[in-house]
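Shift notes (night). Ran Transcriptional antiterminator BglG while the centrifuge was going.
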Amino acid sequence: MNMQITKILNNNVVVVIDDQQREKVVMGRGIGFQKRAGERINSSGIEKEYALSSHELNGRLSELLSHIPLEVMATCDRIISLAQERLGKLQDSIYISLTDHCQFAIKRFQQNVLLPNPLLWDIQRLYPKEFQLGEEALTIIDKRLGVQLPKDEVGFIAMHLVSAQMSGNMEDVAGVTQLMREMLQLIKFQ
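Came back to this:
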């Protein structure tokens, strides 16, 4: 399948229009190198393609992917694929939220900035499947990128997965988790 480039984000990521006139973000090593908008590319060099449900998400993904290394994107894609195998369909926005989160978590780690997760214990108890996937995500990040993120990140990743299973946003999920934490505290002291 041939695709026409509409925008080059970097050497490894381009925005294209496919034969069915759908806008996609595609990535592959060197896929945008020495290319111009309007040129056609062959799908054989594409390692991953994203066709999101809304034009707005596609725009946000394009912007995000233009600043994130291919290895981080591929690692997050592996984590999301694993999560979909275990949890079922996830909201398309997970590609943006989780990739963005992981990139900044890696930057924070490299700068020795720790972000504690005060809800870690609660997340583990309330969302055990997502928490386990968060643990596996940290292992994948370590193996693929050589970065050992702190345990607190397990909870943050789990919350992104919980949010992607719902139609709400991350703040809603965090609010529900906080409410459940307070309810558990009340029950414990009764």
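The first strand starts at residue 2 and ends at 10. The beta strands are 2-10, 13-17, 23-27, 40-42, 48-50.
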